[in-house]
Amino acid sequence: MANKVLGIEIGQNLTRVVEIDYKVKNPKIYNIFSIPTPPGMITDGVVEEGSMFRSLLSSKLKEKHITTNKVVFILNSTRIASREVELPLVKEKQIKEMLAMNASDYFPVDLSQYKLVHEVIEKTDTPEEKKMRLSVIAIPNELILSYEALAAECRLQLVALDYSGNAIKQLMAREIPGDIKVTIKVDETISTLTVMDGNTVKLQRNVNYGLADAIEEIQDSELFGEYLSFSDAVDVARRKTCLAIRTDDMPGAPEPIERDDMGHEIDSEKFKRLRSNVSYALSNLISSLGRVIDYYQSRNTERPIERIFLVGLGADFSGLSKLLTNELNYKVVPLQQFDGIHVSKSINLAEAKIAEYFNCVGGSLKPLPIIEGDKRAKSRLIAAPIGRPGADGQPQVGPDGQPAAEAEEEHVSYGVPLIIFGLCVVASVALVAYSIFSNLVLTSDNMTLKARISDLSYAQNIYDVYMQTKSDYEWTQLLEDASSNQNDEIVSFIDELEQKFPSEAKLVALNATTDGVSLTVSQGSKDVAADVITQLRTFDSIMVSNVSTITEEVDETGATKVQFTVDCVYVSQPDDTESTDSTENSQSTDSTSTEKTSENNTESSQQ
């Protein structure tokens, strides 16, 4: 009976499964299907255990009547690092030691958290040169442990783990023709470009772009239905060309009418917009692939690339191969079937889209030794003689005809072990009981705390509202501080001016600045001028900073006109106590100033 395995590759949105012969020269594919990956199950290659995934996988296996329980998982993560290393030609068992000694030079990370796996690429054994080239891969232990836990959760026997780059290489060596072999594997979030010269990998690069953004554009367009799932959107992209491709059609030629699954005509303008959006979503992928190809060709001008094979999810994405051909200037051919691998007659190749399962098939051919095989040691039972031999080699016999000291030996051989065994049993029972009791107590406390958290969850909303209000208030305060100046006090000054300015005086001009105001006052006598200055000194909103020279003029009718200018600066409104003190001081100062002004006026009149 053939040794079958399940080759499983877990993607961000879709999980692909293949039932295939394991490590067989000419394997056969028996079943092939995909299931949606539960949201949040995989993060940069690390998978989480989940009953939803187990339920989906188990249900699909039953539907397909698959009883195989052995599994090979395909790893795909940006945290997996690979290097090409050159070492002296040594035996296989010495390679690990040499890699361990120099691993920190190849991978500048904490290698205690990684597992190193190597593969010999090429050996040179000549009198002049003895060396070997290796491909060394560093895989995070966390990644390996997560897949081991997932296999246990799904009740599957994990027989191997394989790295996506190796799976691609193994299948390329069998299926891609020519000396220079190039493939682009395009999936949801990661694309891999591989260049091989014969059976040797010359270049392999991962690009952190895929079809996820383009599929999302199809979902968001709602041209093919609302709430379209990822799988349904992929089916749409397979059936309809949802991207813009440069063509040489005659200008003015009518465009074909697009229809949805129900046969209804699709709005041509909306469909044009969708094609434009999908092509834009693929622009980063195309430019990244172009840079990798240019890098290879610049260093291998004597071995040019003639054509590129498109595999993975992108192989069936309608129009993608033409778009890549136009943008990369290389013939890109979608690989949609395998020539060297048998496929069960029960599989409909037109519907299966077998190129999407490229990694699942390649991982079953010759996976890397990422996990070691089980090594079970054989135990041996050694029986000891009951009696002690005498000088003649025969057991000593006691007076009762029994071997000497048999009773004592039996007491020593069975009594003490039984007592120790009994104590161990009692201790084990006590520990188990204590563990169970502790677990129950902790479980109860955990449930109580969860209930308490649930009861107090409303506080989070209150806190969020408070923090938002506080942020708005602080922003308003900052805005007010930035937009305010001392000229805001002019309202208080105008109010006081209306109440305290003498009616005999005439306000000729008022100039306001950000710091204060300048008043030009005209009146009939110097006494009124003194009264104006006195009143201004009593204002709470300003402080008199300067009084210009008082001028006196007599017109033709003999009327006297006195005019002067007063400069004032704004002051902040003080508290009640400070306002009272300030008023008293101001009044005292004003009275003194009035007296001096009166004396000056008297002297001036006398003169």
DSSP strand (E) fraction? 15-25%
Q: Tally the helices: what do you get? A: 16
Helix content estimate:
40-55%
How many β-strands, per DSSP?
21
C-alpha Rg (nearest Å): 46 Å
Mean pLDDT: 80
Spatial order of strands in the largest sheet: 10-6-1-2-3-16
Characterize the overall form: elongated
What's the main sheet like?
6 strands, mixed
Unreliably modeled segments: 248-257, 261-265, 373-412, 575-607
Distance between the termini: 138 Å
The helix-and-strand class reads: alpha+beta
Structure description:
The chain has helices spanning 51-63, 92-106, 141-153, 164-175, 212-221, 230-239, 268-281, 283-299, 320-328, 349-352, 358-362, 406-455, 458-483, 490-500, 526-537, 576-606, and strands at 4-10, 14-21, 28-36, 42-43, 46-47, 70-75, 81-88, 114-125, 130-140, 157-163, 180-186, 191-197, 200-207, 307-312, 331-334, 342-343, 506-512, 516-523, 542-547, 551-554, 560-570. The chain is elongated, with a radius of gyration of 46 Å. The chain is an alpha+beta fold. A six-stranded mixed β-sheet has the order 10-6-1-2-3-16. Strands 13-12-11-14-15 form a five-stranded mixed β-sheet, with helices on both faces. Strands 17, 18, 19, 20 and 21 form a five-stranded antiparallel β-sheet that branches. Strand 2 (14-21) and strand 3 form a beta hairpin. Helix 5 (212-221) runs antiparallel to helix 7 and helix 15 (526-537) packs antiparallel against helix 16. The N and C termini lie far apart (138 Å).
